């Protein structure tokens, strides 16, 4: 019966509660590996403990790195101080740095900053030394001039992100109470400290960690890393026989491509509003706009919509699709592709101008050049009468980082990439956690319910609708459709604003809930739905599909497909009726939960038939077991056990040693006293003893 | 805090008990058996007390702090009374066992005297009580943090360790005095043991005023130690003899066989 502590706490360990305050929201930076490097952060197996220090300015770093008396320090940074110069200095002084915690603000900073490299995917695009030495390595245009490359540095201490919430207030208060040196005097123990756990199992590079994955000595072998993999989503306006892979005679396909994913410095935060979402939302809206036209007056060529995943990490999705096409493992192959139109970053177009990028090297071939010129003319005619203008950059410039580059590596296909920047990115938060709805100026009037917000058409949505209309009309004419129908092809701003709301503000909305089956509803979290790559335990089937990819698949099915009157059981089995064995080759059937009719609460589900399918987006390097490949992406993500953080007070080393000394002293003294007393026991306890009866 | 605090506090709390065990009990198997049996008796008393307390907490109003505090006081008092009751029960059991052992064994003398049994059983109670008091605190002292982020005193671990050492030694002294009182039918001695146990337990309600709870506890420890010394057959004369190293002469003069 020691302390009358938390009386109400019957079942918990109240001593631990008196010592530690556990942090609720902890987002680490994790370790990724490729063929040659490891990037990201690492902590000790038992966590990194450091005395808290809130960094006030770059000069204050001197305290952490040189003059502070109680290393190692755990530095708390405001987001404005999370710059390359400060992080590099901390990295170099890492014996005195136990970790870094970055406080992410609620509003975006005013200065643009991008943790990505300044030349994204420079080794796996089409511009190598062989292709054109003058254009390799961003010699002509540095695409991401604000890029600091922080995401690709290696740190041997953990770096966590925290929100501005109660926990951060507790941390600041603890620092103010205990660690703040007043007037140049040194702070006294006990000092406030923090411990961060983010131990990563994989080291060195992909080849090492894949080799260690395959060690089978123990009964329960442990995997140390996973290759990055997810699924591409694709659909065609005329259904293609997906079971008969390889070249399809007579099929000429216009490929409309966009990318799905993005990333940031920290794990699992990847809003990617301008870097990814703007592009694929425009393409989804274009696919929806083309649904009626391609049903009623099908153009001669097929249109294949492809949404690639993993493009941030050296074009995982597009390289896999090209590889599948080359190996006759896809519904069409490269000879079937007539041309490519890719929608890149289109969310920020200032002055409503879009820029059409093409590859000057392949255009040296006159036939390719002709086709590209025709495509550009069609784009310009599609944009006439709309509130957006399209132009070429006007000088010889390589393609920006885009999935089209991987297709060019295989064949010189004519194609154009639509972007909102003439040369360098206008996106000042490329692949950063600040590339969110606020950056795209998606704002709603106050006092709207979530359902009203879902339906409200923002200005961003209107602008993106224009882009989608241009893309849709161009695709129609490019596929050989009649110019007379162009006026009727228009993207729906209502659709665009709903999709933007779902992917950038709240994914658990009533519209998304109608489009997905009931077992997927739990994956729609209340917070924003981040489009991101997901890992797959290599070789484990069925592979995990991330919720955003599934959402895009169901969306694409809804926007390009149609409802059919099929029972749920048949729908799940990809058939129209009991005996049907043919439908599954051409169509995919998806059962969705639908909406509840006005007078009841039970949802009425239905079956959606469409040509929307998934194709695996795992880098070919892992199928070929070429883990040091220079041609394909070799990115893997390390596995980890615990990610958590907690704050507490630490006592001085002297006090601890004093406690140990006192303990040893007590032990030795009692040993000595007891020995003396027991050896003299018969003398000491002799009085009152019965004679000859008792023994000692 | 760290391993050094863990070992420091362990040695403080269990140092005297380990020393006593090593030098006086470990070599005699009979004493070890009775020590463990004593520990078990304490454990059963704790089980009963905690059962009653748990049930009473479940049926009480969990939100009222005053009621919870009252329940805790009730729990403490009940546990002290139960421990002493089990000490008495153990005494009765040992008396019966000793008679039985005597009839069974070939020897004429008792293998273990009631005084030794008092000492051993008191130490057994002390070991178990100390273990339950301090082990979970020691487990948390291994981590990197120390108490204080919510404003509690920093000396929690140290004061817990010292309190545990006092409790272990106190149990040993109470055992000696209790059995002696029961042997000689001096019931006021038994009542004094119970009363001092109650006082020491209730002193812990003073925490986190560690000075207020530790100093009186050590005073009571010293007093009980003196009483137990006299009850076990010691006297001031013997102490003087030992300290001035005249014991050998005393032995020779009395021709005591060794």
UniProtKB/TrEMBL annotation, chain A:
Keywords: Glycoprotein, Membrane, Notch signaling pathway, Signal, Transmembrane, Transmembrane helix. Its main location: membrane. The chain crosses the membrane at residues 657-677. GO terms for cellular component: plasma membrane. It is found in: Membrane. Belongs to the nicastrin family. This is Nicastrin.
From TrEMBL, chain B:
It is a multi-pass membrane protein. It is found in: Membrane. InterPro entries: Aph-1. Belongs to the APH-1 family. The chain crosses the membrane at residues 6-25, 32-59, 71-90, 117-139, 159-179, 186-206, 218-236. It comes from the Eukaryota. Pfam families: Aph-1. Keywords: Membrane, Notch signaling pathway, Transmembrane, Transmembrane helix. Potential subunit of the gamma-secretase complex, an endoprotease complex that catalyzes the intramembrane cleavage of integral proteins such as Notch receptors. Its main location: membrane. GO terms for cellular component: gamma-secretase complex. Component of the gamma-secretase complex. This is Gamma-secretase subunit APH-1. One of its GO terms (biological process) is Notch signaling pathway.
């Amino acid at each position: 019966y020691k302390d009358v502590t938390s009386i109400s706490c019957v079942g918990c360990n109240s001593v631990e509660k008196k010592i530690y305050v556990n942090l609720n929201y902890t987002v680490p930076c994790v370790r990724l590996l490729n063929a040659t490097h490891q990037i990201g952060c690492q902590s000790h197996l038992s966590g990194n403990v450091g005395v808290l220090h809130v960094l006030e300015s770059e000069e204050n770093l001197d305290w952490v790195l040189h003059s502070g008396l109680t290393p190692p320090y755990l530095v708390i940074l405001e987001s404005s101080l999370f710059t390359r110069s400060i992080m590099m200095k901390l990295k170099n002084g890492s014996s005195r740095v136990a970790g870094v915690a970055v406080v992410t603000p609620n509003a975006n900073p005013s200065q643009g900053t991008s943790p990505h490299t300044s030349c994204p995917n420079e080794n796996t695009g089409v511009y190598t030394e062989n292709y054109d030495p003058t254009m390799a390595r961003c010699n002509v245009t540095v695409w991401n001039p604000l890029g600091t490359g922080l995401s690709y540095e290696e740190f041997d201490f953990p770096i966590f992100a925290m929100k501005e919430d109660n926990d951060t207030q507790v941390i600041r208060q603890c620092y103010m109470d205990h660690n703040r040196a007043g007037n140049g005097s040194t702070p006294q123990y006990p000092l406030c400290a923090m411990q961060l756990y983010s131990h990563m199992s994989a080291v060195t590079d992909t080849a090492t960690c894949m080799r260690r994955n395959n060690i089978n000595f123990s009964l329960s072998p442990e995997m140390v890393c996973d290759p990055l993999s997810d699924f591409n989503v694709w659909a065609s306006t005329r259904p293609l026989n997906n079971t008969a892979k390889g070249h399809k005679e007579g099929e000429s396909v216009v490929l409309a491509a966009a990318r799905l994913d993005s990333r940031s410095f920290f794990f699992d935060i990847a809003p990617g509003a301008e870097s990814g979402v703007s592009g694929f939302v425009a393409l989804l809206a274009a696919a929806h706009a083309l649904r009626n036209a391609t049903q009623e007056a099908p153009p001669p060529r097929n249109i294949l919509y492809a949404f690639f995943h993993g493009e941030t990490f050296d074009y995982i999705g597009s390289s896999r699709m090209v590889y599948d096409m080359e190996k006759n493992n896809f519904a069409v192959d490269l000879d079937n592709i007539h041309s490519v139109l890719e929608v890149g970053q289109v969310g920020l177009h200032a002055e409503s101008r879009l820029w059409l990028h093409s590859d000057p090297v392949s255009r040296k071939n006159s036939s390719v050049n002709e086709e590209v010129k025709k495509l550009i003319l069609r784009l310009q005619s599609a944009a006439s009468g709309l509130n957006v203008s399209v132009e070429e950059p006007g000088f010889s410039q390589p393609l920006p980082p885009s999935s089209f580059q991987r297709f060019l590596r295989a064949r010189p296909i004519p194609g154009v990439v639509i972007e909102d920047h003439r040369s360098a990115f206008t996106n000042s938060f490329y692949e950063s956690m600040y590339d969110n709805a606020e950056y795209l100026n998606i704002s709603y009037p106050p006092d709207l319910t979530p359902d009203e917000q879902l339906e409200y058409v923002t200005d961003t949505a209107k602008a993106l609708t224009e882009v989608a209309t241009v893309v849709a009309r161009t695709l129609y004419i490019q596929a050989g459709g009649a110019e007379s129908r162009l006026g009727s092809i228009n993207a729906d701003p209502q659709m665009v604003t709903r999709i933007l709301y779902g992917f950038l503000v709240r994914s658990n909305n009533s519209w998304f809930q109608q489009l997905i089956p009931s077992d997927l509803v739990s994956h729609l979290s209340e917070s924003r739905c981040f489009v991101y790559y997901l890992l797959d335990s290599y070789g484990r089937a069925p592979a995990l599909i991330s919720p955003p990819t599934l959402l895009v698949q169901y969306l694409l099915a809804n926007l390009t497909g149609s409802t059919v009157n099929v029972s749920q059981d048949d729908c799940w089995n990809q058939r129209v009726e009991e005996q049907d064995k043919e439908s599954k080759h051409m169509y995919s059937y998806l059962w969705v939960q639908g909406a509840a009719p006005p007078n009841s609460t039970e949802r009425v589900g239905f079956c959606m038939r469409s040509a929307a399918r998934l194709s695996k987006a795992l880098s070919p390097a892992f199928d070929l077991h070429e883990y040091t490949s220079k041609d394909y992406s070799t990115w893997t993500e390390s596995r980890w056990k615990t990610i958590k953080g907690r704050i507490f007070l630490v006592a001085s080393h002297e006090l601890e040693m004093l406690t140990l000394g006192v303990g040893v002293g007590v032990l030795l003294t009692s040993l000595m006293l007891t020995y003396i007393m027991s050896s003299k026991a018969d003398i000491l306890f002799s009085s009152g003893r019965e004679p000859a009866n008792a023994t000692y | 805090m760290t391993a050094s605090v863990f070992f420091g506090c362990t040695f403080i709390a269990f140092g005297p008990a380990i020393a006593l065990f090593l030098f006086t009990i470990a070599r005699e198997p009979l004493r070890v058996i009775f020590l463990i049996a004593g520990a078990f008796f304490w454990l059963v008393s704790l089980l009963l007390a905690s059962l009653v307390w748990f049930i009473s907490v479940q049926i009480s109003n969990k939100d009222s702090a005053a009621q919870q505090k009252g329940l805790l006081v009730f729990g403490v008092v009940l546990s002290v009374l139960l421990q002493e009751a089990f000490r008495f029960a153990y005494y009765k059991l040992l008396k019966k066992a000793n008679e039985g052992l005597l009839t069974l064994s070939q020897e004429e003398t008792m293998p273990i005297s009631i005084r030794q049994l008092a000492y051993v059983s008191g130490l057994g109670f002390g070991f178990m009580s100390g273990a339950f008091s301090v082990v979970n605190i020691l487990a948390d002292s291994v981590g990197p943090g120390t108490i204080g982020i919510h404003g509690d005193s920093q000396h929690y671990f140290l004061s817990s360790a010292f309190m545990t050492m006092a409790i272990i030694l106190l149990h040993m002294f109470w055992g000696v005095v209790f059995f002696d009182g029961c042997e000689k039918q001096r019931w006021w001695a038994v009542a004094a043991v119970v009363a001092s146990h109650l006082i020491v337990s209730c002193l812990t309600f003073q925490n986190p005023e560690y000075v207020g709870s530790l100093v009186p506890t050590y005073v009571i420890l010293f007093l009980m130690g003196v009483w137990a010394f006299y009850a076990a057959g010691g006297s001031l004369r013997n102490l003087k003899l030992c300290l001035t190293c005249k014991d050998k002469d005393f032995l020779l003069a009395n021709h005591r066989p060794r």
